Amino acid sequence: MNMGGGPFAMPGQVRHDSTLCEGEGRGGRAPLPHNHVVIPALSRNRAKALATALFLLLSPAFLSAQYFQQQVDYRINVRLDDVKHELFAIEEFDYLNNSPQTLDTIWIHLWPNAYKDQSTALCEQLDRQNNFRLHFATPAQRGFIDSLDFRSNDTKLTWGFHSEHIDIGWIKLPAPLAPGARITISTPFHVKIPSASFSRLGHAGQAYYITQWFPKPAVYDREGWHAMPYLTQGEFYSEFGSFDVSITLPANYVVAATGELQNAQEVAFMDSLAGLTFTEAEGIGGNKWASFPSSKVSSAQVKTIRFKQDRVHDFAWFADKTFIVRKGSVTLPRRGNTVTTWTLFTPKNATVWDSAITYVNESVRLYSQWVGDYPYSACTAIDGGTAAGGGMEYPMITIINDSEDAFDLDVVIAHEVGHNWFYGMLGSNERDHPWMDEGINSFYEQRYVETRYPDKRLMDLQGIPLGFLTRQKGITYRQQNELQYRFNARRNWDSPPDSPSAEFGELDYGTTVYSKSALIFDQLRSFLGEAKFDSCMQRYFDEWHFKHPCPPPPPARPLVRLMPDLSIRDFPIPWNMT
Predict the structure, then answer these.
(1) Cα atoms found within 13 Å of the Cα of residue 136, Cβ hemisphere only
(2) pTM, entire model
(3) What is the DSSP string of 83-134?
C-alpha cells in the first residue's frame, strides 16, 4: 500500500500494489446471470464472520493512538471555455501535517492526464475490458492537465511525474514539514476536458461533468502515501478538508456543485428555474418546456458563482444550459433540521425525472434514520451522460445516467445518494477495501427497495424473462442479488469480498462486492436483529464519520473482542471473508 514519507522519495520508489491497479467504479448493478435459481440463506458461520468483520471497525484497536489524518483546504478559481472545452484555473491549498512523521514530499493526483494517451492506466484498463474508445480516440476527444507551476510563498518548487503514471505527480517541499506544521502551495492549471464517453470527467457537447479535475494531494496515513492512477473501474481515497471554489462561465448555464452556493443572485436564479412548469407535447423525448429561459446558444455575458463547503474530500460541478430544476426539502429524523434537495435534469428525460425530488428526499431520510443524520445543508441529483455506469457519487451531489423507468431511477438515486455515507462521510479506501463502500451501500440499497416497494417483484431484467420463468411470480430485489452472486459462485469465480479491487474481474466485482456483500450484511441484520444491527451501524457512523475507517493491521485479525453491547463475544474470524 505504500510509499513512505520522511526522506525525499523519488517517483520510482512508489510500490505497484493494489492502489495502482484496476478496481471497480460503477454505481450501478452488475449484469444478471442467465438463470433464475435462488440460493438459500447464507450460513450462520458466515454471518458471524461478517459480524466480526464489520465491528472490527469499532474495536479498541481501531481507536489507537496510531490513527491520524491529514487535512487539505482548497481555494480554486476556474473559468470554463465552452467553445474549446477547456478549463483555466488557479488553485491554492493548505496542507496540514497531522502525522507523527516529518514530510519533505507531497504526492499529488493529476487525474485529467488519465485521458491523455494510450499509455495511461485508465486506457490500459479499458483495453483489457475490450473497450477501445479511449485507445483509438482522436486528439480532440482526449483530455489532459498542464500549465502547472507549483509554488509556496512565491518560491518555485521542484516537482515531477511518477515514473510510470503521468496522472500522478510529486512535489518536493522547500523545507521539511514537521508534525503539526502547515504549508500553502499554489499553481495555475489548464484542463482539456475529454469526451464524456470514456469515464467520469468529460463533456457531451456543451454539457459539462467536471469531476476529478484539479491537482489533489494523495492520502498519507499510517500505511504511507496512497498515490494511485485514475481508473474507471476503481474508486478513490482522499483527504478531508474545505473547498472554496469560484466558477466563471456564460451566464445562462445552470450549475450544480458540491457545497453551499454563496451568490444571492444565483440563488434567486435557481429558485426561479425551480418554479417553472412543463406541459406534455410533441418534441424530443415527448416533452417540451414552456417559457424555459435557457437556449442552446451561450450568453455573451458571464457570471462567477461561488461554492463553499467544509468536511468533504472532493469537489465536483456540473453545468448545462438546458437543465430543468426542481427544489424540495426533507426533515431529518434525529436532529429535526431541514436539508434542501435539488434535481436537475434534461428535457429528454423529464418524464422519468418528474418525481425524482421525492427519491432524493426519501434517500436522505431513510439513510439518516438507519445510519446517522445527513450533516450538510443540501443534496443534489443531476441527469447526466457519462460512461461511468448507472451513476457516480460525489460529496453532496451525484450524477445519474439514463434510466428506463421511475423505479430504476429511484433505486440508482438511492444508491448514489447513499454514498454520501459510505464513501463521503465514512471515507474508506475504496481501491483497497471496496466492500466498505459499495458492499455496505448495496445492502442499504436493497433495504431501501424493501422499504419503499415491499410488494415489488422483478419480471424482466436486462432481457431475462423472469416473469415467464417464475410463472409470473417474479423475484424480489434480494433474490436478484442472490442470482447475481450465484452466477459467479457456481463457477468458483467469486473472490473474497475484502479483496483489493485489482483482484476482481469486471463481472466478479459486481457480483461479489455489490451483490454478495449486500447479502452478507442482510444476513448479519437477521442474525443480530434489526435494532442491534442499526445500533451498531449508528455507532460506527458516530465514531468514524469525517474520518478514514479501514480494517486493522494483520495482528488484530485472528481474534477480536467485539463491542460490549453486542450479544456475541469472542470468536475467530476469517478476515478475508471467503
Answers:
(1) 5
(2) 0.86
(3) TTTEEEEEEEEEEE--SSS-EEEEEEE-GGGGGSSTTSHHHHHHHHTT--TT
